[in-house]
Amino acid sequence: MSQSIFDLPGRFWRGNLHTHSNLSDGALDPSEVCRRYKAEGYDFLALTDHFVGEYNYPIADTKPFRDEEFTTILGAELHSGAMENGEL
Question: What is the DSSP string of 21-56?
């Protein structure tokens, strides 16, 4: 019988390092994205909207949504520009 990694000693954090808000192609505003992740028991979230001119190069300030039980990492999804076929 194999042992689950979660049965071992230590602390595990639940988080998401890549998600979007309505600052780029997501559906919800940053505060609601953070609220929902926190409500689902996540320990951390990186809001990484598309950092391109089409969306005005957004970086959401998620610091106001941090507390003792939930933290955020400021981030963005970087793009290298258009390919030969015109796609990002």
Answer: -TTTT-SS-HHHHHHHHHHTT-SEEEE--EESGGGT
Q: Whole-structure pTM over 0.90, yes or no? A: no
Q: How far is CA 1 from the centre of its chain?
A: 36
Name the pLDDT band for 79 (thresholds 50, 70, 90): confident
Beta-bridge partners for 43: none
Give the other-Cβ count within 10 Å of 58's Cβ: 17
User: Are the C-beta atoms of residues 33 and 61 closer than 8 Å to each other?
Assistant: no
| Of 77, 3, 88, 73, nearest in space to 34 by CA | 73
CB-based contact 68:40 (threshold 8 Å): no
DSSP code, position 84: T
CB 46 within 8 A of CB 17: yes
